[in-house]
Design goal:
The protein has about 425 residues and is an alpha/beta fold. It is about 35% helix and about 20% strand.
Length: about 425
Amino acid sequence: MLPIEELYDLFKQFPSVQTDTRQLKKGDLFFALKGGQYNANHFAQEALDKGASYAIIDEHIAHPIPEKMILVENVLDTLQELAKYHRQQFNIPFIAITGSNGKTTTKELIHAVLKSTYRTYTTPGNFNNHIGIPLTLLKVGMDAEMAVIEMGANHLKEIEGYCRYVQPTHGMITNLGKAHLEGFGSFEGIRKGKGELYDFLRHAGGLAFVMWDYDYLREMSKGITSIVRYGTTQADITGSIYQVQPFLTVEVTKGIPLAKIQTQLVGSYNLPNVLASIAIGNHFKVSGENIKTAIENYHPTNSRSQFLENNSNKIILDAYNANPSSMKAAIENFANLQSDQKILILGAMAELGAESIKEHQNLIELIGQHQWKDVVLVGGDFLKITHPYHSFENAIQAGTWFHNNHFKDAYFLVKGSRSMQMEKVIQNQS
C-alpha cells in the first residue's frame, strides 16, 4: 500500500480531488468511493480515460492493476487520512461549526466577515459530512490564512471523527434542537453528539465561541480554557434586535463600536448567527467597518430564509431543512410579522424516528395558537394526522393550489425538510 506521505506528494503535483466522473477535470486525482447504491471502482478506468492523473481504488478491478491506478485498503479512509495530512501542513486558525440549526447561515456569515481581511477557505454549500469535509480540507490552498469548516451530524461519534482530521483550533455550537432524533435517539443524544466538538477543544486547548444566552451551552463548555462569549446580555459581545420586518436589523450593545447592522436575513432567530460572526470577526481583529459591510452585503441563497417578492406577494422561502425547533422558531417569527394576510405552507419534517407523529402534532397545535389567512400542510406525517387545514401529498400539488388562488398582497412562509422540495410550491408551473 502506498504510504500517505507518497500519496500526498502526488496530491501536491495534482492538487484537485474528484469523486464523480461526471464532474472530472483533466489532472484530477480520482477517489473511487463506494456507497450503498454505487461502487466507483467500476468507473476508475473511465476516470483515467477522461484525464484523471491517478485513480485511487480499493478493489482489484483488473489483473495486473492498470498503470496510474493506486490500490489502497479503503478509499474513504485514505481520503480522510490525506485530508488530515494536508491539514497538518497548516498553522492557521481552523474554525469548526456544528449545531442543530443555523450552521450554514452562520458559516457563510463568518466566512464573509473573515474574507474581508484574510485569505479564507470554507465549506462549499453544505459539504458537511464524512465525504464533504475531507474534500473541503483538500481544497484549502497553501495561501490560506483562515479556514471555516461546517460539521453536520446525525449520530454519536460523528463529530468526534471529523475532529480527528479537521483538528479545529476554534469551534462553535450554534444551538441544540430536535434535529436527527432518529439517529441520535434522544435530545440527550443530540447534546452528547454535538458536544463532541467541545470535548475536542477542551482536550486540545482550543477556543470556543459560546452563545451565552443558552444555559446548556454554558454548562457544556465548562472546562474549556478559552471562551469568547456572545449573546444578548452578560457576554463579551452583545446585541439586540432593533427591527425585524422585513429584514433583521441588529444593534450591537457591547464589545465593539458598531452602528446598527441592516442584514438581508429574515427572522429574529438569525440574531445569534449575526452575533456569532461579529464575535469571531472581532476576535480576529477584523475592523468594525469590515464586519458591518460583510454582514450587510451577505444575501442568503439556496432556499435558506430567502425573502422573495412575487408580484404583490412577499415570500419567506426556508425550504432547505426543517426540524421541530427550527419550525417553531420560523412559525413564531412569522406570526409576529405585521400583516393581515399571512399564509403558512409547511412541508413535513424528516429523520425524527419514533417521535415524528408527536412532533408534527405539536406543530399543528402551535399553528392553532395564532391567526392565519390560510394554512397548507404537505406530505409525510402531516398526512397521518387529522387537522383542519389544507392537506396535499407533495409540493407540486401545493404549488397548484398556490397558483390557482391568485393571491395579492399576502405574506407566505414556505418551509419544510429538504426531502419535501418545498421550493416547488412557488416555482412557475405550466
